[in-house]
Design brief:
The protein has about 425 residues and is α/β, with parallel strands linked by helices. It has helices at about 1-20, 35-50, 65-75, 90-95, 105-110, 110-115, 120-125, 145-150, 160-175, 185-210, 215, 220-235, 245-255, 265-270, 305-320, 320-330, 350-365, 380-390, 400-410; strands spanning about 25-30, 55-60, 85, 125, 130, 135, 140, 140-145, 175-180, 255-260, 280-285, 290-295, 295-300, 365-370. The protein has 19 helices and 14 strands. β4 and β5 form a beta hairpin. α10 (about 185-210) packs across α18 and α18 runs antiparallel to α19. The longest helix has 25 residues, at about 185-210. The chain starts with a helix and ends with a helix. The structure holds beta-D-glucopyranose (BGC).
Amino acid sequence: MKRLALSVSAAALVVANAAYAEPKAEVLHWWTSGGEAKSVAVLQKEFADNGGTWTDMPVAGGGGDAAMTALRARVLSGNAPTAVQLKGPAIQEWYEEGVLADISSVAEAEGWAGVLPASIAAHMKCEGSWCAAPVNVHRVDWIWANADVLEANGIEMPTTWEDFNAAADKLQAAGIIPLAHGGQAWQDATVFEAVALGILGPDGFRKAFVDLDEATLTSPEMVAVFDQMRKMRGYVDPNFPGRDWNLATAMVMNGEAAFQIMGDWAKGEFLAAGKAPGEDFLCASVPGEGFLYNVDSFAMFDVDGDDNKAGQELLAKLIVGPSFQKVFNLNKGSIPARTDVALDEFDSCAELSAADMQASSDGGSLLPSYAHGMALRGAQSGAITDVVTQHFNSDMSSEEAVKQLAAAVANSL
Ligand code: BGC
């Protein structure tokens, strides 16, 4: 009898420990620029305010390439971080390796299915269960500009690629760098996909970078995309190799350069530096139709310990919570993933993003970004980016580039 009483109370203690464990999380992310650091601080604060202990694992390097290498090393050594910034099909790839935790209980308790657009929710599911939590919707196909530089040179935001080239030629003649760019593979890919959306149109983009259709990859329109990339190469300054994206944004801020083609994390950078949209800097979607989305999200890795599990549950809950979705995205430059967060405190670029996203969703031109890992698995997107970068950094002809593109994609399948 005595023995039984003892074991019952021991069991009760274990249950109590699980329920009251102090939430802990080691969080791997690549948010290290000024605007990004301000944004992730919002999550760190909410986590701490709710009793959580956060161990930061930032891995510098825009676009997340270095972060993904660091993640692989940690998982291989049997020491995965608790929560990881992960997105697109990489979520399902990690799930297939059997290392992700199921966060369906949080998703169901918090009613995620009712507040997230179906297209975003689909990225967060692994065989029907929830395996990631979305923080935002970034738009990739933006052009940013220095308002004073454009005004002083009598230039309007371009609405066609011909306009863009004419503006760039004029700026170059006036001694201004037309395009602020950092020569890193993911930045080359970002410019390339924005140009491709404009020239191929939404259907052509989908055929090329979602369906990997060979005829589209080798079409005359794709040759024209590489022709425009060759023009772009002529509009960057000689110091572009290796430059970080936020340093390129700074060149637009200080008037050294006129334009940058970059996702709206660049807006987070302008805002963190105290710049105002419409006054100091301008935003416009790149010439053409459509909307390239890039949804940041966090996946939880299977780790032991009630404190870690409590940390994962708390993080997932906070990330999709309405207060975090508002404050984080005000800083990050993106818009909330939740559809029920009022946008009245957001600026005109965010309003344009939300309106265009809705219109593109209704019109069938809402498309996943290939350059930011939303459209394809790593092997395929990597194969495309290799060709884009090789073309940008050599004198390869556009005809040769499309041949190599089709061959690289075929080899990666
Ligand atoms: C991420 C953004 C990040 C940007 C630059 C993108 O892939 O989605 O959150 O700010 O890379 O690092």
